[in-house]
Amino acid sequence: MKTVAFLQTGRRVEVKTEANVLQALLAERTPVKMACGGRGICATCHIYIESGAQALTPMTKKEERTLSLLGEATPSSRLACQARVLGEGVVVRLPKGLYIERSADLTELIGRRAESRILHPISGKTLVEEGKIITRSVVNALAQVDVDMQRLMEGSRDL
Ligand code: FES
Fold first, then answer.
1. Is 94 in the pocket of ligand 1 (CB under 6 A)?
2. pTM score of the predicted model
3. Residues 25 and 85 in one domain
4. Mean pLDDT of the chain
5. Could you report the per-residue pLDDT of 17-47, keeping only the tens digit for each?
6. Centroid of ligand 1 to alpha carbon of 106 (angstroms)
7. Secondary structure (H, E, C), 30-59
8. How far apart are CA 69 and CA 72, in angstroms?
9. 42 CA → ligand 1 middle, Å
10. Mean of pLDDT values over 3-12
11. 86 and 28 belong to one structural domain
12. Looking at residue 131, which CATH number applies to its domain?
């Protein structure tokens, strides 16, 4: 077993050696969308590794390619579904904001203010700023998210 720590909460969870960091996120009940089902082609499991990067498996070409499309990526970015935990000392910081998988994910929030930034599931771009009211026209304007996700899933069949 190996321990993964979360910077924002200070909590630590144990995962099996070689489990991916996504398992730690799920154990921590982090609301992670896993829009691509853990195939390394979306942004919804994007995390930052604050320390202990050397205790993770190296980045694959696919992960590199996905992160290269992500505007918020930094050298400490990883995809939780692709990074496997081999050693101790991994500390994870979660990106600020909530990824959506479909524009309909926001329907129940119409009329409310966004509690945190709402982010595109592939590019990580901010779709709705924190504190902005989510209106029906905002949700309608995000229909492109559905198109992007459909293209992503169709394209991923060849991977
Ligand atoms: S769940 Fe899509 S890249 Fe990890």
1. no
2. 0.90
3. yes
4. 92
5. 999 999 999 999 888 889 999 999 999 999 9
6. 20
7. CCCCCCCCCCCCCCCCEEEEEECHHHECCC
8. 9
9. 5
10. 95
11. yes
12. 3.90.105
